[in-house]
Amino acid sequence: MFNGKKPLVLAVVVALAAGAAYYFWPAADQAAGAQAGQRPGPGGQRAGGGPRAGGPGAAMNPWTMPVPVRVVTAQSNDLKVQLKAIGTVTPLNTVLVQSRVSGPLAEVLFKEGQFAEKGQLLARIDPAEYQVALDQAIGQKEQNQAQLKSAEQDLERFAKLKEQNTIAQQQYNQQQALVNQYKGALKSNQAAIDAAKLQLSYTQIHAPISGRLGLRQVDAGNLVQANSSTGLVSITQTSPIAVAFTIPETQLQMVLDAVRAGETLTVEAWDRAEQLMLAKGTLTTLDNQIDTATGTLKLKAEFSNSAQELFPNQFVNVRLNVAERKGAVTIPQDAVQYGSEGTYVYMIEDNKAQVRNLVLGTVDNGQIEIKQGLKAGEQVVLEGLDRLRPGREVEVLVRDQQAVEPAKKAPQQAAQRPKA
Q1: Where do the structural domains in the chain lie, given as residue ranges?
Q2: Fold type of domain 68-80+327-415
Q3: What is the DSSP string of 64-78?
Q4: Per-residue pLDDT tens for 335-362?
């Protein structure tokens, strides 16, 4: 019978052990807290409910550990003084190719989007009607030439008869007038021939300028009217090409000083994201008046565009270089902080962050000029700025994520931690 009760006895022993552990465990925890100099709270918990003093939590507290930062050295560079604006690419010339005569469009000799040279044959109008008009003008001239020849022969005979006094002077004068009339008619016939030839030449449509062709507006076989508003095709000159942009009135004097000094100002065209420079040109034109509605002045720059980097009506970011600062002290623009007392950067002194106020200058491709407050060779904090405060201890990191001057405070705290 004792063997049958063995499982029940074991269950009772386990229950008693668990109860004793539950009863005596808070007391042991309170004793450990008292040794650590802390007062236990209700239920055996420390007041505040945090980690034990000197334990791992205190050593790894992010608000007391040194802040990892990256630094950058101030450089002495040649800095461009640039004015930024948004510009529009505009062709120097745009032409709508139209037919100067009416008639069936016999042939289209171009492809849409291709480049055409000035004088290139683009299309033909059926020339039959205009060839007939030319032949008619030539025939009329030949008729008048025959009549003139006959009249001149009669005039020579009348001249001999006049010398013999066999005809009246009036008859001779009438014949002379007839000869002159035929000579005048020949000049009119020649003008008609020239006009007919001109009309016939208009049946061949040539490119008036060099440029890129647009979309075809009329297909072969259609009846084309002279000077139609739709035209046949448009041509835009793309090389060279212009970019139009505006600058505020407050920046005008800087540009005028450079222009009056005879300097050639370069202009850069960048893509929308300002990550890629598309082309570089020169400033060519300043408008003659400021727009009173916007307080801006229109400018135009010209680009060779030999590689077709710019496209008509494209929006670009414009950078107008008006001057260059030699030996300027520069740092990355991201290192500069802005506060109620002005602009500043964080310096590292004795492994602690300190504030240095600055006077800023020109910005060029992410680099900003420091007019006052910093010298070339000094280091400023570039990354890790969000947790920095004046006097906060830091550790400077290099690119491989290793600390150049690792903080020793945390390992020392871990080594001096009292054992529970």
Answers
A1: 68-80+327-415
A2: 2.40.420
A3: TSPEEEEEEE-EEEE
A4: 898 988 789 998 888 888 888 898 888 7
